[in-house]
Amino acid sequence: MTQRSLAILMNILGVIIFLTASASSATTKYKLEVQLSGNATGTVTSSPAGVECSPTCTKSYPAGTAVTLTPTAASGASFAGWSGACQGTGACSLTMNADQSAIATFDLNQSPNALNHIIFMAQENRSLDSYFGELRAYWAANGIADASFDGLPQFNPRTGIAPLHGPVPSNPGCDPAYPPPADCTIDDSSPKIDSYHLITQCIENPSPSWNESHVDFNLDDPVSETPTLNGLVWTNAHDARDIDPPYHDVKGKRTMGYYEGTDLNYYYFMASDFATSDRWFSPAMTRTQPNREYLIAATSQGYAYPIGTDQNDQALLTATTIFQELQAAGITWKIYVNPQDSSCQSDPTPQCLLTLSYVQNFEWGQDIPTDYPQNLATITQYFDDLQNGTLPQVAIIEPASSAGLDEHGSDSDQYPIDIQLGANYVSSLVNALMTSSYWKDSAFILTYDEFGGTYDHVAPQPTVSPDGIKPQDLMPGDICTQSTGPTCDFTYTGYRIPLIVVSPYAIQHYVSHTVMDTTAILSFIEQRFNLNPLTKRDAAQKSMSEFFNFSNPPWMTPPTPPAQNTNGPCYLNKLP
User: Is the pLDDT of residue 127 over 70?
Assistant: First the structure.
């Protein structure tokens, strides 16, 4: 064959290969899913055509197709922004080289000025999946219309609204060849620990602390930005074996347990009738105290541990609290605490009540008993204020931890914490508001401080540092002192936690898909009372107005919720 003939043949082969590759590429298609969210209506259209949806639509495009999505708000509404594959508040351009999903949020052009009273409360240590993972199955069983809610995938329907049914989540368990006192060992012989229904209403306390939260995020690379969420069983087994005496659950199985609508019937009813979220997170990947500092001041000022844990975290926080800001603006406020079974039960003075509030962690908080003694009150005063017309404009209700009503995991066999008793206590607080004269212009926001080391299948989300302060109290040997990575700063949220927004204005059976953390409550208060953000963190939160319909309130006559079940078994020496 001549050189010229060879060249011609090579050209022909090249054309054939190109055409074959082009044909293969043209036959590969990827799915684009668009969901609508928010408390208002709108449409999303696409170029090339194919997407025109309300509330959810999908369209498949050939690989490499450039697609532009254009949101259009309905009359009286505005486009609040994208989440998922799209970001920002304008048109979104995507290249279809993989399946992609985007959420468009539309909000009513309104403000929360109809609310004259905002009450918020954070219970203790529960993930969204552990409490509301079964919510869609509850809806199906009780004739409640389905909606998009990203709970445990085994409870999603097989057809209909996304997300759809998926396999039961699991974590690798401890190799039985290494029982205690050996540490939990994850290897090729590890069993699979599946998500399961907890029968006991009391579990031994899992840990959400800094190290554990990072190992939960990724067992093999805790400081990476790649979540695998496969370390929860290991951390809880490790901690159970490490304490003296060890917990009963040395295999760490408690973390994979969840509750259902018959266990938490009051919460399931309220989350279904009022508004909730499947993208609501704690502020930081660590334990209670720093997260509650965020809830009060939108920062922990670099603390990853409770004040006083070691020599690097002795000082009180100097950050401005929401109460300080309210006081300066002339907005009435109170902190309600429950002194039952504490030393303050017989000494309910402001000085003593301060020790039951997390505002004690702030320098300014130390002056409250002297300067604002009426603003620290017992929970009995809350009920009196509802009846006497003296409810403040903003109030926080601290958890009744001393009374064992905070839904926390149990630290010892002697003092088991029954979540049904905690939920029943919360029901008394919410029901009292719903039956009072204040109902017409109030909101009660119920959430949790952090996930408590219980399983959730959605990873913490990137966010903004509140003040640029990095963790300053990590101890020798801590994760992030040996190596560093994206999660070694306060630029990630914590894990998902439950949320219920109760108000005459709360949209009936509403689920938000907008990523927020609990500092969004502070932002909502600031929006309502024209206050400045406390830090960059609360300033970055999306508006909680999407949970409300201020133009046409659905619940001026509140529903009648069921009495919370309190007869579930409570034991710690076995599972489930």
Answer: yes
- Closest by CA to 144, choosing from 508, 497, 431, is 508
Q: Which residues contact 278 (CB under 8 A, 6 or more apart)?
A: 128, 148, 149, 150, 151, 458, 496, 511, 512, 513
**How far is residue 506 CA from its own chain's centroid?**
18
CA dihedral (276, 278, 284, 288) positive or negative: positive
Dist. CA 549–CA 559, nearest whole Å: 17
State residue 41's pLDDT score: 75
Q: What is the pLDDT of residue 310?
A: 82
Band the pLDDT of 112: cuts 50, 70, 90.
confident
Q: From the CB of residue 483, how many other CB atoms can be counted at a distance below 10 Å?
A: 11
**Side-chain half-sphere exposure of 133, counting CA atoms within 13 A:** 26
Window from 43-52, 207-216, 429-438 with minimum mean pLDDT:
43-52
**353 Cβ partners below 8 Å, 6+ apart?**
335, 337, 339, 344, 369, 376, 377, 378
CA separation for the pair 252, 315 (Å, rounded): 35
pLDDT of residue 110: 65
State the angle between helix axes of 419-434 and 265-273 in degrees (0 to 180), rounded to the nearest 10.
Answer: 40
Give mean pLDDT, residues 313-330: 96
Please give the angle made by the CA atoms of 384, 390 and 391, to the nearest 5 degrees: 85
Helix, strand or coil for residue 337? strand
> In order of start, what are the domains of the chain with their CATH numbers?
28-109 (2.60.40.1140), 117-511+519-547 (3.40.720.10)
Alpha-carbon span 133 to 264, nearest angstrom: 12
Whether residue 22 has pLDDT greater than 50: no
Tokens 């969210």 map to which residue? 37
Q: What is the DSSP letter of 164?
A: -
Q: Within the chain, how many helices (H) and strands (E) appear?
A: 14, 22
Cα(322)–Cα(246) distance, integer angstroms: 40
Write the CA distances from 169 to 153, 281, 368, 559, integer angstroms.
8, 20, 47, 35
The residues, ordered by sequence, that sit 6+ positions from 504 with a Cβ below 8 Å of its Cβ are 439, 440, 441, 442, 553, 554, 555, 556, 558
Return the sign of the alpha-carbon dihedral for residues 475, 290, 283, 501: positive
What residues have CB less than 8 Å from 55, skipping those under 6 apart? 35, 36, 148
Give pLDDT, residue 109. 60
For 212-231, how does the pLDDT look when each residue is reduced to its tens digit (9 = 90+)?
A: 999 999 999 999 999 999 99
Q: Are 410 and 569 in contact (CB under 8 A)?
A: no
Residue 519: how many other CB atoms lie within 10 Å? 30
Does the model's pTM come out above 0.70? yes
Residue 98 has pLDDT above 90, yes or no: yes
- How many angstroms separate the CA atoms of 310 and 286, rounded? 16
R_g (Cα) of the chain, nearest Å: 26
Averaged pLDDT, 319-344: 97
**CA distance linking residue 36 with residue 57, whole number of Å:** 9
Could you tell me the two tokens for 156?
């999603």
Mean pLDDT score, 284-290: 96
